[in-house]
Amino acid sequence: MNVKEYATEQIRNIVVVGHNGTGKTSLTEAMLFVSGAITRLGKVDEGTTTTDFDPDEIKRKITINATLAPCDWKKTKINIIDTPGYADFIGEVKGSMRVADTALVVINASSGVEVETEKVWAYADEYAIPRIAFITKMDRERADFFSAIHSISETFKMNTVPISLPIGKEQGFRGVINLLKMKAELNENGKIKEAEIPADLMVQAQEYKEKLIEAAAEADDELTMKYLDGQALTPEEIQKGLVIGIRQRKFIPVLCGAAVQTTGVATLLDFIVDYLPSPAEMPPVKGINPESKKEEERPCKSDAPLCAFVYKTIVDPFAGRLSFIRVYSGILKSDSIVYNVNKGKDEKIANLFWVMGKQHAVVHKVVAGDIAACSKLAVTTTSDTFADREHPIMLPATKFPDPVIMMAIEAKTQGDEEKISNAIHRLTEEDQTLSVRRDTETRQTIISGMGDLHLNIVLDRMKTKFGVDAELTPPKIAYRETIRTKAEAQGKYKRQSGGRGQYGDVWLRLEPLPRGKGYEFVNEIFGGVVPSKYIPSVEKGLQEALQKGVLSGSPVTDLRITLYDGSYHEVDSSDMAFKIAASIGFKKAMELAKPVILEPIVEVEVTVPEQYMGDIIGDINAKRGQIMGVDSKNGKQVIKALVPLAEMSRYAIDLRSIARGRGSYTMKFSHYQETPPEVSQKIIAARKPEAAEEEET
Questions:
Q1: Which of the four pLDDT bands, split at 50, 70 and 90, describes residue 319?
Q2: Is the pLDDT of residue 690 over 80?
Q3: 507, 525, 600, 508: which is closest to 560 by C-alpha?
Q4: How confident is the model at residue 393 (pLDDT cuts 50, 70, 90)?
Q5: CA angle at residue 59 from 56 to 63, to 5 degrees?
Q6: How many Cα atoms sit within 13 Å of 545 on the Cβ side?
């Protein structure tokens, strides 16, 4: 990797985004090859691309990690961040878009705008960054440049401005017309050459050049007046208008090509350098001064106080932690001490690197606007801000999407539980959409992520990186038991085995309480039939018995237990005897009180386009859900429902299938309610083997 010094104005930060399979990695590879950053054009199918170097990416032939790969074009450093297209790895996209200045949206010429493209477009709106579109795979079957452009306009309700036009399509695709230069970029026997525009396409090229000039003129008042007066705009004025329009997101510039042929890539690189904003041209970054608690700004200048943001972390069990950093202001230097504002501690910056895929090149400083990496930071994690102690500023943390699927994880080999815990902890450091918790009630470790593929890759990484085999199972549901009617029973424990015996005798009354009231203990003993010193033991026995109901072995709730009678023995009675007697009496009374199983119910809000609303409601009804209402928000339908938690374990996958990936949902615990008899029977049947095993032990 060639290391040179660049000023802030000579840097472009581009995040490559789009639906899976659109060709983002191939386009990134082509940009690296055409610019001379690499000498051999890698291929996704062969596992030889620069940015898909992870073993899981090579095996599955998909992008999993957002990967940085800089190149030099026309004395400008272009930091390219290649991102995944699968919804399971959307956190990688959002984290990368946070530090980019422009989004390069890649669209398949035969498919047009697809669902993940819509999602990343919304993220670009959230971060208010410009975007350009590149319609790729023009050499593939059913490729249609103008249909793809139409899908962009229709989906995002924005004006599209072609910067390049295709010459031919499908197998006949052989180049592009650069409307800015009014020249052709032709692929002749695998070599890209500049040529004159074919005569049969000149009229079309002139027509679209006029539309380009019109878009440039509309972006600036002075240019608008000149254009309306019938005066021709100079090339410099056209550039000025396009630059303004792109910055202000007044239209979408669209280019095209075929990445595997590298056709149209030189035109794209030219456009990135000449028309897209450098970090110096972006608005100042905003953050909070932790001392004054007021908002402050940092302009992207190297002579301003330091402000740098850690947007991504990679954890390797051998190489340690690698932190990726965008410098927003000031200069970050190796062998320096910086202040980690989030942690309130100094951090030693030992080595800084430019990173291209898996290659690292040592650099001694990183100027404002540039992106680099630093190894083995002591206290720093993702979303931390570095600053000068004298001029502290804390940038807002990246808000990553919430996990949508939960599974229980356990070791395949007994004794590997600690290894699993350590591995997950390390993986959650680098993956902000992965979370883990211990469910003390079900005694399971619950891992949450963005989908099946996401969690399966986590398992693969645990094995390859940390040497531990694990498996996923559906998480157990935390059921409860309660009673429907009042019941009374005696609990008597009497043992005589020579010498002092054991004797405890209680009478208990069980009564149902309203849902959510928990457990009450009432002592109605009079006359000392159960001595007061044994009452705490009775209550302790009941509390232990409440942990396992008689139907499913689940905790018992929403009932009042009254101790109203009993007897004792002067010699043989003891705390232990009354504790056991209470447990016996509780189980007898519970069986007489018409016990039932309660299941957790969650509040669910599903947001989908209107055309999927009927299917979503039908699916919720099939899941024993109850529709509570439907609202409209931002052009979509928000369906509110109460659904049993047991029916929601794989809802992320169901929703993705029904709504073609265009839906989202949230859920939170609402309450417990009685399960239908047929559901209760299944729960009890599932509990039988576990209960039998407990009896044996």
A1: low
A2: no
A3: 508
A4: very high
A5: 55
A6: 26
pLDDT of residue 606 exceeding 90, the answer is yes
Q: Which residue type occupies 633?
A: K
Q: What is the pLDDT of residue 500?
A: 77
Cβ-count burial 84-112 (b if 16+ within 10 Å, e if not): bbbbbbbbbbbbbbbbbbbbbbbbbbbbb
How far is Cα 12 from Cα 277, in angstroms, rounded to an integer? 7
Q: Evaluate the CA torsion angle 352, 357, 358, 360 in order and state its sign.
A: negative
Over the stretch 340-360, which tens digit does the pLDDT of each residue have? 999 999 999 999 999 999 999
Chain centroid, CA 119 distance in Å: 12
DSSP for 622-641 reads: HTT-EEEEEEEETTEEEEEE
Task: Classify residue 425 as exposed, middle or buried by CB count within 10 Å of its CB (0-12, 13-18, 19+).
Answer: exposed
* Beta pairing class for 160-162 and 252-256: parallel
Q: What is the pLDDT of residue 693?
A: 58
**Confidence at 315, pLDDT banded by 50, 70, 90:** confident
Which amino acid appears at position 352 of this protein? L
* CA–CA distances in Å: residue 157 to residues 111, 118, 121, 133, 251: 18, 12, 12, 14, 10
Question: Hey, what long-range contacts does 402-405 have (CB within 8 A, 24 or more apart)?
Answer: 402/666, 403/433, 403/434, 403/435, 403/448, 403/449, 403/450, 404/449, 404/450, 404/451, 404/651, 404/652, 404/665, 405/448, 405/449, 405/450, 405/451, 405/452, 405/454, 405/455, 405/649, 405/650, 405/652, 405/653
What is the chain's percent helix, strand, coil content, to nearest 5? Answer: 30, 35, 35
Give the whole-angstrom CA distance, residue 61 versus residue 55.
10
Q: Which helix (H) or strand (E) holds 362?
A: strand 359-363
Residue 89 confidence class, pLDDT cut points 50, 70, 90: very high
Classify burial at 39, counting beta carbons within 10 Å of its beta carbon; exposed 0-12, middle 13-18, buried 19 or more. Answer: exposed
Q: What is the pLDDT of residue 697?
A: 47
How many Cα atoms are found within 13 Å in the side-chain-facing hemisphere of 591?
9
Partners of 493 in the β-ladder: 504
| DSSP helix/strand/coil, 603 | strand
| Cα–Cα distance for residue pair 308/328, rounded to 1 Å | 5
Reported as a single tens digit per residue, the pLDDT across 45-76 is 999 999 999 999 999 999 999 999 999 999 99
Amino acid at 414: Q
pLDDT for res 372: 97
Instruction: With CA atoms as reference, report the closest residue to 673 among 611, 626, 635, 640.
Output: 626
Cβ atoms of 489 and 445 closer than 8 Å = no
Q: What is the model's pTM?
A: 0.88
Residue 382 phi, psi dihedral angles, 5° rounding: -55, 140
CA torsion sign for 612, 618, 623, 624 is positive
From residue 505, alpha-carbon distances to 302, 490, 531, 536, 540 in Å are: 82, 7, 11, 14, 15
3-state SS class at 374: strand
Rounded CA-CA distance 346/362 in Å is 22
* Tens of pLDDT, residues 131-188: 999 999 999 999 999 999 999 999 999 999 999 999 999 999 999 999 999 999 998 8
**At residue 620, what are phi and psi to the nearest 5 degrees?**
-65, -40
| Percentage, residues of the chain above pLDDT 90 | 85
- Residues 6 or more apart in contact with residue 499 via CB below 8 angstroms: none
| Residue 596: φ, ψ to 5° | -135, 160
Task: Provide the angle, in degrees to the nearest 10, between the axes of the packed helices 115-127 and 90-97.
Answer: 30
Q: Which residue, chain included where needed, has tokens 């669902």?
A: 115
Which one-letter amino acid corresponds to residue 317?
A: P
Q: Contact 109/138 with Cβ under 8 angstroms?
A: yes
Give the model's pLDDT for residue 105: 98
Crossing angle between the packed helical segments 417-430 and 452-466, to the nearest 10 degrees:
110
